Amino acid sequence: MSVQLRDSHGAARAVAYLMLAAGPYNLITGVLMELGDPPPRLIALGVTSAVVLVIGLVSLRHPEHLPVLFWPAVPFLGIAVITGLNVATEDASLGPQMFYLWPLLYAASFLGRILTGLVVAAVSAGHALVAFQYTDGTHALHDWIAITVAMSMTAIVVAGLRERNDRLRDVLENQATSDPLTGAANRRAFDAAIGRAVTRAGPHHPLALVMIDVDHFKTINDTWGHATGDQALRAVADALRDAAEDRGHMVARLGGDEFAVLLQAAPYGALRYIEQVRTRVSGATDLPCGPPRISIGIAVAPDHATGPDDLQRAADAALYRAKEGGRGRSMMAGPARLTA
């Protein structure tokens, strides 16, 4: 069963706001307005109100201090508290039962389908415990069925809307971080990824940055038209994606005819990769302009740089040397200047 929490910040705020409202509400209505009730009952309600208030404050200010399992468990804890308060007050009327909406909406908004279904079942069971204990059988049955159906339909609608919003958000995120022509990542996504990747790089986990330029791309556009130029760019992007042995690499189009690849590889692993790239690019014989020629520069962290900016400068310098040396070549950054 998945207990992955959707939108942890939103979930923490939802818990905090409810608890901060429920604590004082229970204290006022269950204790201060019922001071003639038996002391044990008042003490229990007062302690419960205080605990709820503290949890609300922690959720608001320091949600990271709460256990990971607290967030999927909180709707069940809420149901237990609501049911306990309804039993303690012997109140099976509709008003108190409406508090079950909060754990239901929380689960449908932030948890998966299985946990949401379990929450609906728990709400149904909690209401049945109160309804059948404090109202007559026929009325209790009708009330229990109505609450169960209403809660189930509410969960289905809210969960469906949330899933639809998730799909729309994924589409928008993909559009915001990918190049529409080639399907590669765009500059924005690349800039965000290279910083994280270089931070993780080390002697046992080297990171190669491969910079690629399509040689004489303007000539392709001027001679064969922009449609053929677009085909050439797509062919290069496809070759960059397909050449890696590890699908964890990232291919990005930085603009125009310039591409970049982040690859988990040492220097010689990066050279093997670009050999595969060249093989695949040379196979693009269906283009009117023929297979495009490419120049490549390679730099590896931590061999040639320890930061993202230095790594890009090293790879750019290697690419410049490849183009200066006649194009259609590959150059490695660093003293060795390996070529392929």
List the helices and strands and how they pair.
Blueprint: H1 8-30, H2 39-61, H3 70-89, H4 94-97, H5 101-110, H6 113-134, H7 137-177, H8 187-200, E1 207-214, H9 217-224, H10 226-242, E2 250-255, E3 258-263, H11 267-282, E4 294-301, H12 308-324, E5 330-332
Parallel strand pairs: 4-5
Antiparallel strand pairs: 1-3, 1-4, 2-3
Helix pairs in contact: 1-2, 1-5, 3-5, 3-6, 5-6, 5-7, 6-7, 9-10, 10-11
Per the principal axes of the C-alpha atoms, what is the gross shape? elongated
The major sheet is characterized as: 5 strands, mixed
Report the portion of residues in β strands. Answer: 5-15%
Q: Which range best describes the helical content: under 10%, 10-25%, 25-40%, 40-55%, 55-70% or over 70%?
A: 55-70%
Q: What is the CA-CA span between the terminal residues?
A: 50 Å
Describe the strand arrangement of the main beta sheet, using strand numbers. Answer: 2-3-1-4-5
The whole-angstrom Rg is: 31 Å
**Class by helix and strand content?**
alpha+beta
* Number of extended strands: 5
